[in-house]
Sequence to fold (538 residues):
Amino acid sequence: MATSIIVDSVTKTFTLRHARSLRELTVRMARRQSLSERFCAVEDVSFTVEEGETLALMGLNGSGKSTLLKMISGVLLPDRGSVRVRGRVAGLIDVGAGLHPELTGRENIFLNAAILGMTEAETRRKFDAIVEFAGVGRFLDSQVKFYSSGMFMRLGFSIAAHTEPDVFLIDEALAVGDPPFRQRCLARIRELRDQGMTMVIVAHDIKLLTELCSRGIMMRRGRLVFDGDVAVAGEMWREDRRAKARAARSS
Amino acid sequence: MAAPTVTGELVEPGRGGGLRAVIRRRYLLRLLVRRELKARYKSSLLGLGWSYVRPAVSFAVYFFVVGVFLGVDDAIEDFAVFLFSGMVLMHFFNDALHASTRSVTGNAPLVRKVFLPRETFPVAAYLVSLVHMVPGLLILLAGALASGWRPDPVGMGAAVLGFAITALLALGLALLCSAVNVLLRDLEQAVDVLMVVFTWSVPMIYPWTQVRDNAPAWVLDVYLANPLVTAVSLFQRAFWYPGTDRSFEFPPDLYPRAVAALAVGAAVLLLGRYVFGRLHGRFAQEL
Fold:
C-alpha cells in the first residue's frame, strides 16, 4: 500500500488585508487604522493518508479543515511545512465553480472536465454517464443560465464525480440538490470508495461521515487534536458543538 | 471502471505552473479561449460585432478629425492605410492589456477553488485579443491592396518584426498586470487610462516627423525609445509605404531599433513571468 498524501508540520497564516485600493489605503493610513490582521488558520498539522483510505476531516466552523483541504488540492500553499500528494487531485470543492452561465450544458461539460484535468477523449467517453447522472439530458443545449439552481448543482456534481482522480477531495458538497439526488451522490461516493479511491471528506453531517469513512481527524482552532477511529472523532465533534451551544446560551 | 492506479511520485500540489504548464494543458487553454469568444458573442445582440464597432468608430473619428479637418492627409499619401496599419497593432495591444489585467480577478471563483496553472487566464485573454486582430489584418490587407499596395520582402520582414515586438510586450505586460491587479485593484483603472496615452504616444494618428519638427531633441529621443513606436513604424513600412511614392522618411536606424525593441519585449516577458511566478501563490487567499 503506497502513501497518497503526506501533510508534514503544515502551518498556514492568513493576512486579512483591509485595504485593496489606493483610496482605502490612504483613508486607513490617515485614520491610523491597521492595514492588515493576521491569524493562524492551520498550525503545525501532520498526518499521512494511505492509498484507498477514506478520511473524514471534522471540526467546527473556522477550525481550519477547509484550509487544509485547499492546501491538499494546491489552491493554497502552506507557509511552513509541506504537503505532498501522489497522482491527480480533484474534487467536489465547489461544484459549479467552473460552470459558465453563457455556455450550454454540453459546452460546460467539456470545459469543466478540462478544468478538473480530464482530456478530450476521457470526457467523450464519460459524457453520457455525466449527462445521465445529472439528469439534464433535455436541456443539454440550452445555456446554463436558464438552468434551475438544482440542475446547476447536479451538473457540477456530476462532472466532478466522474473525473476519477487518484485523490478525491469533498468539501460540504454532499448537501446539494433534492433528497433523491443526494442519495445518488452518496451512492456514487460509496462506489468510488469501494473501488479503492483515496478520499478526504469535509462535512458537517457527522452521522454520514462516520458511515462513509474509516478514519477521522478532529481539528480545533487550527490544530489537530485527534487522529484515529472515526466514531471517536465524531463524538469529539458533538462535544465541541454542545460546548459551543452552552457558551452561546450563557453569554 | 478500473480502480484508480496511483501514478508517479509524491509531488507538492500548487507548485507547478508557468507558461510551460499552460502549453502542456493547451486543450484547456483552447476551451477557455473558445468560452471567452462565445461568451462575448452570446451576451449581446450584435455579438462579436461589438469588438469591431469601437475600432471602427475610433478609425472614423481619427480619419475625419485628424486626417481631413486638421489636414494631415494632405501631407500623407493614403492616410487611411497609414492610420489603419498602426491601429491594427495598437488595438491588439490595448485590447490584450485591458482584458488580461482583469483575467485573474475575473475568474476569482475558479482561482479560489481549483488549481490550474494560473498563467492560463492571462494567456487565454491574450489569445482572444489575438483572434480579434485577424479580421482587422484582413481589412488592412484589402484596403492596402485597393490603394495600390503590393507586398515586398523587406516589408514582410518588417511586419513580422513589428508584430513580434508588440506580441512580446503585450504578453509580458499581460502577466505582470494580471498578477499585480489581484493585490491592487486600482491597476485595472490605471491601465484603461494608460491606453489613451499609448494610443497617442505612437506615430499612428500623426507622422513621427511632427515630433521631430516641433519638440526638443531630447523629447524626440525619449519618443523614439518607445518600442511601440518602432513596431508601428515597421507596420507602416510593411503595409503602407510600398503603396506610396516612397518619399516618406522613417525614424533613423529603424532596423537596429527594431532589434533593440525586440530585446526590450523579451525582457518585459521575463519580468512578467517572474512577477507572476512570485505572486501566484497568494492569489487564492487574496481574492
Chain B has one domain: 18-286. Chain B touches chain A at residues 1-15, 25, 27-28, 31-32, 35, 38-39, 42-43, 109-116, 184-186, 281, 284-286 (CB under 8 Å).
